[in-house]
Write a structure and sequence with these properties.
single chain, about 450 residues, alpha+beta, eight-stranded mixed sheet, five-stranded mixed beta barrel, 13 helices, elongated, binds 4-amino-1,4-dioxobutan-2-aminium adenosine-5'-monophosphate, binds magnesium ion
Length: about 450
């Protein structure tokens, strides 16, 4: 197999190598040309040195522009430059394809807004290369964490008929002719003629199906795309995002919170330990001090607090919020951040929210007012994880489904789990892109996924 730039940079001087990649920069001096060649396998590029005198194919070198794909053969030598230990003294070269002046990623700095118009090319920049490497390593860390604990990786369906969060924010999947759909006798759309003979949607969460397998093989996790037709155009919301959802039989809310804390610490530490170079870049150029904040998260215990306690803290500061709160209010990002940044100065696990602002499947507390919900809030971002202990009592769950006006027949199978060998169980969901935002210090969630899909998104 051909060696990558990452592999070449790890070799000793004297090694004969063939290096391939794309020209990042080219610097011409009197006797030599310096070409920085990167292939995205690591943050650093390989410095290629071409000695003009006696180099057979100097015309190719002269023609080579930023962005050109190329190959160099030669010997590694000790580098005098301070940025790298070895460089390649080229003996021969090949250009696969040049890039002309219209190549958008010339040397000058481009804004993230500009790069969002060039989604197909932005992966070649330092920042987006680093984001995608961190994303991949974080995904691996997630699998490692759960696999080491004996959890099973479950793939839940993307097309579904049930609304897990009950919030009605689903994209409909249909093959009906929208210009002229078949009609029922009373004039409505006849979905029995649709592909699945009934209405279907893209999933907002794999949790409900996850529960069915947690009550079969005990501990599972899902990790896949989820879709929300939320009309919110914020820097923390996507219409298509990836979620990690563990679900554990015989777990209560405390067990769930313990697992969430251990999980976040493990995956963040894994990235710091295994990708220090990219993290150093984020620390220097994207958000100063981000690595220290992550270390802090890894080392310090998370604070645990009930919603009721948090409201008391927030009320003291109501004057400074855009949306003042009282008991029963939904907590917004500004409040989440205040609790974790100012009150606790650490990640916080908030529990026991009012039942009115949480989903139908959460276990009711004895007070009749709150449910066994938990959100993990982190400084700078707010909610990163949402979860709960699930209602395991058949009668209570059925009453809740009716109370919330959900279509009972769609949840029959889910109720069955409470009919046959029901157990206490719990789980949570981590927004994968939120975790990447937090780790890298990037500001906008659209910049931590290759092809962001969001409200009013018109571009590719
Ligand atoms: O809090 P949420 O809605 O919880 C659930 O979906 C549960 N079914 C999870 C479970 O208990 N298994 O979403 C979970 C997490 C949030 O904490 C947030 O990090 C992320 O998913 N998230 C989003 N990320 C990006 N864009 C969006 N529109 C998001 N909505 C939620
Ligand atoms: Mg939530």
């Amino acid at each position: 197999m051909k060696k990558t730039i990452k592999e070449i940079l790890a070799l000793e001087e004297g090694a004969e190598v063939v290096a391939t990649g794309w020209v990042r920069t080219k610097r011409d001096s009197k006797n030599v040309v310096f070409i920085s060649v990167g292939d995205g396998t690591c943050f650093d590029a390989l410095q290629v040195v071409v000695d003009k005198e006696g180099f057979a194919d100097i015309e190719t070198i002269e023609a080579m522009n930023t962005g050109a794909s190329c190959q160099f053969e030669g010997v590694l030598q000790k580098s005098l430059g301070k940025n790298q230990s070895v460089e390649l003294l080229a003996k021969s070269c090949r250009m696969f394809c040049n890039a002309d002046d219209s190549y958008p990623l010339q040397k000058k700095h481009q804004t993230f807004e500009f790069l969002r118009e060039k989604l197909h090319l932005r992966g070649r920049t330092n920042t987006f290369g680093a984001v995608m490497r961190v994303r991949s390593i974080l995904a691996y860390a997630i699998h490692r964490f759960f696999q080491e604990k004996g959890f099973f990786y479950l793939n839940t369906p993307l097309v579904t008929t049930s609304d897990c969060e009950g919030a009605g924010e689903m994209f409909e999947v249909t093959t009906l002719n929208l210009a002229n759909p078949p009609k029922t006798k009373d004039g409505g759309v006849d979905f029995s003629k649709d592909f699945f003979s009934k209405r279907a949607f893209l999933t907002v969460s794999g949790q409900l199906e996850g529960e069915s397998y947690a009550t079969a093989i005990r501990n599972i996790y899902t990790f896949g795309p989820t879709f929300r037709a939320e009309k919110s155009s914020t820097t923390r919301h996507l219409a298509e995002f990836w979620m990690v959802e563990p679900e554990m039989a015989f777990y209560d809310l405390n067990d769930n919170a313990d697992l969430a804390e251990e999980f976040l610490k493990y995956i963040f530490k894994y990235v710091l330990d295994n990708d220090p170079r990219d993290m150093e870049f984020f620390d220097k150029f994207i958000l100063e001090g981000v690595v220290d904040t992550i270390r802090h998260v890894i080392e310090k215990p998370f604070v645990r607090m009930t919603y009721t306690q948090a409201i008391k803290e927030l009320e003291k500061n109501n004057k400074s919020f855009e949306y003042p709160v009282k008991w029963g209010s939904d907590i917004q990002t500004e409040h989440e951040r205040y609790i974790s940044e100012t009150v606790c100065k650490a990640p916080v696990i908030l529990t026991d929210y009012p039942k009115e602002i949480k989903s139908f499947y959460m276990k009711a507390n004895d007070d009749g007012k709150t449910v066994r919900a938990m959100d993990v809030l982190v400084p700078r971002l707010g909610e990163i994880i949402g979860g709960s202990e699930r209602e395991e009592d058949y009668g209570k769950l059925l009453a809740k489904i009716r109370e919330m006006g959900l279509n009972e027949s769609e949840y029959e199978w889910y109720l069955d789990l409470r009919k046959f060998g029901s157990v206490p169980h719990a789980g949570f969901g981590l927004g994968f892109e939120r975790a990447i935002l937090y780790l890298t210090g990037m500001q906008n969630i659209r910049d931590v996924i290759a092809y962001p899909r969001f409200w009013k998104s018109e571009k590719k």
